[in-house]
C-alpha cells in the first residue's frame, strides 16, 4: 500500500519587515552558518564568473548577505533593494563599518515590483530569504527576467517549507533558540510561508526560467541558480 503524506499548505506572512524591533532582531541575529555558505556556494557554482560585475540584490534587508558577497568578490558592485526603511537603516550602519564598501554597495529604497532600480540589466542577480515573503512568487521571477540579459548569473537562496507545522516548530526551536521572541516568531512564520523545491520548479517553468536549477542545500534551505540563456522578450 502506498502511503501519501499531505504537505502542509503555504501560509503567507507580511511582505515587508517594517517593525523596529523586528528589523533590530533580524539585523542582530546569528545567521553565520547559512549566510557564510552562500558566497562559497556561489563560487563553486560559477567558477568562471566575471571578476568585475554589477550585481542586484533583491530584498537585501540589513545587507549581511550583500556584505559577505562583496567581501568575497572584490570586483563587484551592488545595488541592494528593500522596501523597509528600518532594514535599510541597519544596512547603512553595517556597510559603514566595512572599509570601502559604502562605495560598492548602493542602497535602494522601494517596494518590488516598482522599486526605482537604476540599471536596465545586471551581470548578477542575487537574493536571500526574499522569495518566501512574496505573496505572489511570480514577482521575483518577473523581476529577474526584467533585469537580466543574456549570461546574467542568478543565485537565489531561500527557506524551504517543512512538511508540517510540527516540523516547522522543531526547526524554529533548533535554529532560533536564544533569539528574541519576535525573531523566533518571524522564523516560524517564514517556514510556513516558504515554498517547496517542487513548487519553485513549477514557478520557474511558468516564468520561462526553467533553465535555472533548484537544489536543496540544507534541512531548511534551497537555492536556485544558473545563467540566463535568453534575453527577456
Ligand atoms: C527575511 S529578510 C532577508 C534579508 C536579507 N536578504 C537576508 O538574507 O538576510 C526579507 C527582506 O525582504 C524585504 N521585502 C519583502 N518583500 C518585499 C517587497 N515586495 N519589496 C521590497 N522588499 C521586500 C523585507 O522588508 C526584508 O527586509
Secondary-structure topology with pairs:
Layout: H1 20-28, H2 32-45, E1 53-58, H3 64-72, E2 76-82, H4 85-96, E3 105-109, E4 124-128, H5 138-147, E5 153-159, H6 165-175, H7 181-193, H8 197-207, E6 213-216, E7 221-227
Parallel strand pairs: 1-2, 1-4, 2-3, 4-5
Antiparallel strand pairs: 5-7, 6-7
Helix pairs in contact: 1-4, 2-3, 6-7
Protein described:
The protein has helices at 20-28, 32-45, 64-72, 85-96, 138-147, 165-175, 181-193, 197-207; strands at 53-58, 76-82, 105-109, 124-128, 153-159, 213-216, 221-227. The protein has 233 residues and is of the alpha/beta class. The chain has a single domain, classed as Vaccinia Virus protein VP39 (Rossmann fold, 3-Layer(aba) Sandwich), CATH 3.40.50.150. Helix 1 runs parallel beside helix 4 (85-96), helix 2 (32-45) crosses helix 3 and helix 6 runs antiparallel to helix 7. The longest helix has 14 residues, at 32-45. The protein is globular, with a radius of gyration of 17 Å. The mean pLDDT is 96. Bound molecules: S-adenosylmethionine. S-adenosylmethionine binds at residues 15-17, 59-61, 64-65, 82-84, 87, 111-112, 128-130, 133.
Amino acid at each position: 500500500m502506498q502511503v501519501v503524506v499531505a504537505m502542509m499548505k503555504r501560509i503567507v506572512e507580511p511582505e515587508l519587515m517594517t517593525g523596529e524591533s523586528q528589523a533590530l532582531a533580524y539585523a542582530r541575529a546569528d545567521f553565520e552558518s547559512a549566510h557564510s555558505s552562500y558566497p562559497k556556494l556561489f563560487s563553486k557554482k560559477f567558477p568562471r564568473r566575471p571578476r568585475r560585475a554589477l550585481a542586484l540584490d533583491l530584498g537585501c534587508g540589513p545587507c549581511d548577505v550583500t556584505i559577505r558577497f562583496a567581501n568575497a568578490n572584490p570586483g563587484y558592485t551592488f545595488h541592494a533593494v528593500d522596501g523597509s526603511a528600518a532594514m535599510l537603516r541597519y544596512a547603512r550602519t553595517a556597510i559603514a563599518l566595512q572599509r570601502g564598501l559604502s562605495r560598492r554597495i548602493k542602497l535602494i529604497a522601494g517596494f518590488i515590483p516598482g522599486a526605482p532600480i537604476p540599471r536596465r540589466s545586471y551581470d548578477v542577480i542575487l537574493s536571500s530569504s526574499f522569495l518566501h515573503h512574496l505573496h505572489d512568487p511570480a514577482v521575483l521571477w518577473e523581476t529577474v527576467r526584467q533585469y537580466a540579459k543574456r549570461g546574467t548569473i542568478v543565485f537565489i537562496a531561500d527557506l524551504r517549507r517543512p512538511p508540517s507545522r510540527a516540523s516547522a516548530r522543531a526547526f524554529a526551536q533548533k535554529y532560533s533558540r536564544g533569539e528574541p521572541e519576535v525573531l523566533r516568531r518571524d522564523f516560524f512564520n517564514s517556514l510556513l510561508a516558504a515554498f517547496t523545491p517542487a513548487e519553485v520548479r513549477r514557478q520557474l517553468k511558468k516564468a520561462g526560467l526553467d533553465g535555472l536549477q533548484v537544489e536543496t542545500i540544507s534541512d531548511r534551505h534551497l537555492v536556485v541558480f544558473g545563467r540566463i540563456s535568453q534575453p527577456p522578450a
